[in-house]
Backbone:
């Protein structure tokens, strides 16, 4: 049993969320406090609940939370196989009323998204621990995702970025630099990085 690393009672005790467990837990608590309803993730849980420790199984985590909190998750992935794997688990857990899968490239999807977004999770273009070209492409893609979607975020929105504390700066390096220039602050600086919009005091 991995009770210490689990997201129990949201998901069964036997699932180990490793280095993401605490950030998931805290993020979900903030979402509850902010009454988040529209959740969007880029990069679907391509192994369902099988890779909770290595990939995160984010789709299942956010869909389970959405089902319990009257919210809804949109999960975009350009790989149909990734969607098929996540969908299988979602159906098994009877969470299908809380999530919509979109088989598309994340950039046009985000640019054309028509609702205000309360929570954005960015975890698409894979980051490589050694390959610097792949690192730069991943960082540029996550920056472009944020730029494509930023007008749909509001003062109470939260943005979580995966795979940040890695050699070369991780997936969020460029997106976080840009977000900070645009008035966002880091709430949690860990393997996953959570950001909120700075609350500006009235003058
Ligand atoms: C690291 S995995 C996502 C892991 C998932 N969030 C989890 O917690 O299990 C990255 C996913 O992003 C998808 N992806 C990569 N580039 C993409 C793009 N431009 N648009 C949409 N999906 C993309 C891949 O197909 C892959 O399934």
Residues:
């Amino acid at each position: 049993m991995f009770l210490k690393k689990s997201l129990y009672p949201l998901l069964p005790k036997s699932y180990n969320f490793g280095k993401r467990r605490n950030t998931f837990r805290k993020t979900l608590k903030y979402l509850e406090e902010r009454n988040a309803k529209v959740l969007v993730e880029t990069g679907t849980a391509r192994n369902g609940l099988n890779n909770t420790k290595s990939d995160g199984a984010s789709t299942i985590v956010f869909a389970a939370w959405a089902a319990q909190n009257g919210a809804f998750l949109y999960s975009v992935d350009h790989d149909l196989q990734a969607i098929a794997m996540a969908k299988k688990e979602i159906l098994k857990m009877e969470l299908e009323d809380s999530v919509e899968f979109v088989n598309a490239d994340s950039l046009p999807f985000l640019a054309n998204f028509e609702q205000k977004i309360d929570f954005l999770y960015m975890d698409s273009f894979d980051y490589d621990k050694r390959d610097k070209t792949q690192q730069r492409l991943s960082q540029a893609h996550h920056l472009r995702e944020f730029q494509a979607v930023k007008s749909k975020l509001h003062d109470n929105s939260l943005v979580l970025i995966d795979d940040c504390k890695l050699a070369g700066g991780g997936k969020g390096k460029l997106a976080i630099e840009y977000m900070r220039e645009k008035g966002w602050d880091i709430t949690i600086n860990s393997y996953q990085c959570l950001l909120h919009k700075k609350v500006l005091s009235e003058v």
Q: What stands out?
A: The mean pLDDT is 95. The chain is about 35% helix and 20% strand.
